[in-house]
Amino acid sequence: MARFDMQSYEDSGLAQGAATGDILFRLGMMYATGRTVEPDLITAHKWFNIAAAKGYPGAALYRQEVAAEMSSAEVAEAQRAAREWLNLH
């Protein structure tokens, strides 16, 4: 089975404006659960945060659940990454 290359996906479709709340939420779920990628709570929080900003229902709740498992520094890092992504897109 081929491994899904998240960096290529993020750089192509999302950079071209295809970032729907649903896609962003799915990225958060992939990183939170480790489905097809290494689990990464900082990245999961980032995508849940962006999905919530785009109005995706439930994304804020998942962001909160992930944040409960992170340190304050990790949450701050995730928030910086989300702001940076939103500023670029």
Automatic annotation (TrEMBL):
InterPro entries: Sel1-like (IPR006597), TPR-like_helical_dom_sf (IPR011990). It holds the Pfam family Sel1. This is Sel1 repeat family protein.
